[in-house]
Amino acid sequence: MHQPSPDQARRLWLLSGTGEGPPLAAQLLALGWRLRVSVVTPAAALAYRPHPHLEVRWGALHGVQDILAMLRSDSGPAAGPAFRWVVDATHPFATEISHNLSAACGQAGQPLLRLQRPAVLPDAGALQTEHLRELPELAQRVDRGERLLLAIGARRLAEAVGHSQQALHHARVLPQAAALRLAMAAGLPAERVACLRPTVEGRIESGLCRHWGIETVCCRQSGGVGEAMWQQVCSDLGLRLLLLVRPAEPAGVACLPLPELLVSLGRPPA
Fold first, then answer.
1. Neighbours of 100 (CB within 10 A)
2. What residue spans define the domains of the chain?
3. What is the pTM assigned to this prediction?
4. Which fold has domain 128-244?
5. What is the per-residue pLDDT across 193-244, written as a single tens digit (0 to 9) for each?
6. What does CATH list as the number for 8-116+249-265?
7. Are the C-beta atoms of 240 and 216 separated by less than 8 Å?
8. Strand extents, DSSP E, the chain
């Protein structure tokens, strides 16, 4: 494998779709790395504070060839990888981008690391938790007329509704036009859809559950503050929690918790 040039050896490419992105970027910049960050939306880009060694790009990456083209264009005339490391810090359920990154970096000989979100240990109290490996299991887990709150991301709402038609559906989605359109397309009435950003303490979510008379919450086992918040809300209100199990990570990619990831990255060469 070709070695990166001195300039490339000081560059990292961070792909982020999680709350960990901005603080991780700040830590990497403090270590002396030159950093490119890729996010999906302009709103996500606003979370990154300006820095002379930080470049933020927004927009979706469409498949393996799109990623390969970017890696090759960044390599320029020099042989070797475009970056010392590519760091995948996208959401645990964003499986398409993670698998595309793995395939593209493998073809380009580009070193790749994956940030692993820590698991959230369930409260030892009265929380009633059941795990779903796939959304079709909702058909057997939800009763007719049960007030079900879906907090699984807008893209899979229609699938979840289709597998639990006996339930009375409600949804919490991000405040984005695309998310609202998907919720409407899934057949949810406007009065049973809340467009808001997740809160850390869960006060708004608790209020929604009380207002709607929710009996069961279905969310993703994504780790981090979102899952912890729903565990706390369900424990406080005595609701049942259905956790959609986190998908497997791409094979062959080193997946590290934050402390180990930072150790592996270290500091850039002088």
1. 19
2. 8-116+249-265, 128-244
3. 0.87
4. Rossmann fold (3.40.50)
5. 999 988 989 999 999 999 999 999 999 998 888 899 999 999 999 999 999 9
6. 3.40.50.720
7. yes
8. 11-16, 34-39, 54-58, 85-89, 112-115, 128-132, 147-151, 168-173, 193-195, 216-220, 240-244, 254-256
